[in-house]
Design goal:
Elements (H helix, E strand, L loop, with lengths): L5 E5 L5 H14 L10 H8 L7 E7 L2 E13 L4 E11 L8 H15 L5 E2 L7 H9 L16 H7 L2
Parallel strand pairs: 4-5
Antiparallel strand pairs: 1-2, 2-3, 3-4
Length: 162
């Protein structure tokens, strides 16, 4: 791992196009480009509304953004504490294995600690062995007995009775 000066900062409104570019790159990496519905307008509405629905951290090296993390608060009834959900963590390919992902997670952990969060959670593709190894190296436990459940799109309307 290189000894780089990685700066983590909270995204600002001026970063909308950059955030959209990172989301687009991540959707391509995940093989989910056809599901991408994000726009700068939608991001402005959701990230910079009051209160914001999610927050974004940007990782920069020499003033150039090379990765991002998008997260939002959740709650655990079992812990009776707030938690954080890490929705996206992405580092551009040339900067992987350079400490950028670790810096983003460390900053997120500092936010979690300062807001008394009981845990940070996220999903990882079961086939992404590199990501799983990275997360385990950071101290994450991969919960094999839990599966993500999802109702989206038309399914929401059907369930809602429409």
């Amino acid at each position: 791992m290189a000894n780089l000066d990685i700066k983590i900062r909270e995204a600002q409104m001026a970063d909308l196009e950059l955030i959209l570019a990172f989301i687009t790159q991540k959707s391509e990496f995940d093989g989910a480009k056809t599901l991408l519905a994000a726009t700068a307008d939608k991001l402005q509405e959701t990230l910079f509304s009051q209160p914001p629905l999610a927050r974004v951290l940007l990782a920069e090296i020499a003033g150039q953004a090379v990765g991002f993390a998008m997260f939002y608060p959740t709650y655990s009834s079992l812990l009776t504490q707030p938690c954080l959900w890490l929705d996206d963590l992405f580092v551009q390919a040339p900067m992987r294995d350079m400490g950028v992902g670790t810096a983003l997670l460390k900053h997120l952990a500092q936010i979690a600690e300062s807001t008394n969060c009981g845990r940070i959670e996220w999903t990882v593709n079961a086939k992404n062995a590199r990501a799983i190894a990275f997360y385990e190296k950071q101290g994450a436990r991969i919960l094999e007995n839990i599966r993500v459940c999802r109702i989206d799109g038309d399914g929401i309307g059907l369930l809602a009775g429409k």
